[in-house]
Design a protein that fits this description.
With 294 residues, the protein is an alpha/beta fold. The chain is built from 11 helices and 10 strands. The strands form 4 sheets. A 4-stranded parallel beta sheet has the order 1-2-3-4, with helices on one face.
Length: 294
């Protein structure tokens, strides 16, 4: 958001379908303490440019032990929503994952209850659109990011065990270590949300060939904490993979088995993924040409 000058705002207005959510951590003191001196002032300039060109914008705040009271206060809502003109706000509660994580920054359980009450009070009394990716789950019967009804699941990006202390402090129901969770999510999105009934998968091999330059095999941090496996491939021979990728592969195969009406067709011709349906892109394109001509 700090890079949105007058020219950038003008170009965004020309596009006509963009709305930025700009990160704040509270007021000037909290924002500059976490993001650097002068950042809040630059955000105010970005807001001014967005308003000048009629671009709707929102805010995004990370709730931690030291600022949760500020970002759920009436003063916070009045300043950003009424004075500055934000039309929506997202609250992301701090999660201790990755490098340099700290359990000291996690919002305590009793404070999360107060956050829930304070946020809904702002929604009802101040009439602002504010959502907390944890506490607002009760409004959608589960994860508001469309995970599933009845609870949350959490995908730990690095699979080094950092999610386990998080689970003990946050009450997350399941921990799913995954490496290709983004690509799997695209399959689920296309099937469950967009209604696609046939998906051709290319490159879903979940492994590396013998002659491939395997990034975790180089002199990198991942080399020391990724757990490597050699497993039989349904296409013959052994496949080099990791516990993360192996898990992601099994997860997608289970999804394909549970929803057989969604035709998930593996066109990679190699690797570990076996959905019960195989084909090649060349054949699929030829079939499409025949259908179009007839």
């Amino acid at each position: 958001g700090t890079l949105i000058n007058d020219e950038t705002a003008r170009r965004m207005a020309d596009v006509g379908n963009m709305t930025p959510a700009i990160s704040v951590e509270g007021f000037e003191a909290e924002t500059d303490a976490r993001r650097g001196k002068g950042v809040h002032r630059r955000i105010m300039t970005a807001f001014e440019n967005l308003r000048a060109h009629g671009i709707p914008f929102g805010i995004s705040a990370t709730a931690a032990r030291d600022n949760w009271e500020v970002i759920t206060s009436e003063e916070f809502a009045d300043f950003y929503f009424i004075e500055q003109g934000a039309i929506y706000g997202w609250i992301f509660q701090y999660m201790p994952i990755g490098r340099g994580q700290s359990l000291e920054m996690v919002v305590p359980p009793e404070a999360r209850v107060q956050m829930l009450e304070r946020m809904w009070r702002l929604v009802r009394e101040r009439k602002v659109f504010m959502a907390d990716f944890w506490n607002s789950g009760t409004a959608s019967m589960g994860c508001i990011s469309a995970g599933r009804g009845g609870g949350y699941f959490y995908i730990n990006w690095d699979n080094i065990g950092t999610a386990y202390p998080l689970a003990r402090t946050s009450g997350v129901r399941e921990i799913i270590p995954a490496s290709s969770n983004v690509s799997n999510a695209m399959v689920v999105l296309a099937a469950q949300v967009l209604g696609h009934r046939e998906q051709l998968l290319v490159g879903y091999d979940y492994c590396w060939s013998d002659d491939a330059l395997y990034y975790a095999g180089q002199d990198s941090p991942k080399r020391h904490y990724m757990h490597h496996l050699d497993v039989p491939s349904p296409y013959g021979g052994l496949a080099m993979t990791s516990t993360n990728l192996h898990f992601s592969c099994k997860w997608l195969m289970q999804f394909a088995a549970k929803f057989p009406h969604v035709k998930i067709i593996n066109c990679s011709g190699r690797g570990l993924l076996e959905t019960g349906r195989r084909d090649t892109l060349e054949h699929r394109f030829k079939m499409k040409e025949v259908v179009c001509r007839s």
